[in-house]
TrEMBL record:
SUPFAM superfamilies: (Trans)glycosidases (SSF51445). InterPro entries: Apiosidase-like_cat_dom (IPR025277), GH (IPR017853). The lineage of its organism: unclassified sequences, metagenomes, ecological metagenomes. This is Apiosidase-like catalytic domain-containing protein. Residues 28-269 form the Apiosidase-like catalytic domain. PANTHER family: DUF4038 DOMAIN-CONTAINING PROTEIN, LMO1036 PROTEIN.
Length: 280
């Protein structure tokens, strides 16, 4: 009887450990802070664009190392992205596989990855198992995950319809909308000229999440038109990407000052520090 009682206690403890997650991120009543458990939190995240190419053991090493270094979040984890983007032939980015060797979509194979458009209405669950693992391992370490679903260039460059984009957003929302340690950066380097199709994706995610997870956009600058969208909870602003003149060498002080003064009030988060060398 005593042994059975001890076994039950151990099983209950194991179950609680499996499903224990950090408190969901929320916005403070005055609209100025991101909070966790009712207290302001400083999100310190490391960007990991290609992290899904790691094996599970490598994911463990990466997350445990970042935890030991003081990070409480990781950002990115895109399901598909190409080196140097437009410098590569059309469709070649589908060569990106997860650490278990799976492509993001069921119609992509080793033989056709360089020239076949990924069918985003038919995601490969075996690929996204890696992202499940990232989120669940992060929860175990009391860390948050800021998800970027797609780089902005892909949703405006290829022959995906609005319905296709919405289908992919619905898949993401249903799959990751129940994790308390997930928040959404949604689309990487979102620009105002693609706001319609980007909103289609963001709204499809937002309409299918089980928890009230917080949303922002990985914008190029804070004046792209996303802050007026109903799904936006906080302002995400990247830092400058280099020292050369150009659209990415932004005035971060001016951007943050303008964002902080904007109405309606929302938290302002510099999601990415400046990079002195980006092209390499």
């Amino acid at each position: 009887m005593i042994k059975r009682f001890i076994l039950i206690i151990l099983l209950l403890s194991f179950s609680i450990n499996i499903y224990a997650q950090p408190p969901i991120l929320t916005i403070s009543a005055n609209g100025r802070y991101i909070e966790a458990g009712g207290e302001p939190i400083f999100l310190l995240g490391d960007t990991c664009w290609w992290g899904l190419k790691l094996s599970k053991s490598e994911i463990d090493i990466f997350l445990e190392t970042r935890k030991a270094q003081g990070f409480n979040a990781t950002l990115g984890w895109e399901p598909f992205i190409a080196p140097n983007r437009d410098r590569y032939p059309k469709y070649q980015h589908w060569h990106h596989r997860n650490g278990e060797g799976y492509f993001a979509f069921n119609n992509i194979t080793v033989g056709n990855a360089a020239y076949t458009l990924g069918d985003i209405t038919d995601p490969n669950d075996d690929f996204f198992d890696s992202l499940d693992y990232v989120i669940e391992k992060s929860a175990e370490l009391d860390m948050y995950v800021g998800l970027i679903v797609v780089w902005n260039g892909w949703i405006g460059r290829y022959e995906w319809s609005a319905a296709d984009i919405a289908s992919f957003g619905e898949y993401y929302g249903n799959r990751y909308g129940g994790y308390s340690n997930v928040f959404w950066l949604c689309v990487g380097e979102a620009t105002g000229d693609r706001i319609t199709i980007t909103n289609t994706l963001a709204n499809a995610i937002h309409d299918n999440i089980a928890l009230d997870q917080i949303f922002t956009m990985h914008q190029t600058t804070p004046d792209q038109g996303y802050n007026e969208q109903s799904y936006m909870d906080f302002d995400g602003i990247p830092g400058p990407h280099g020292v050369e003149p150009g659209p990415w060498n932004v005035n971060i002080y001016e951007n943050i000052t303008n964002a902080y003064a904007r109405s309606p009030t929302m938290p302002v988060w510099m999601m990415k520090l400046g990079m002195t060398v980006y092209k390499s």
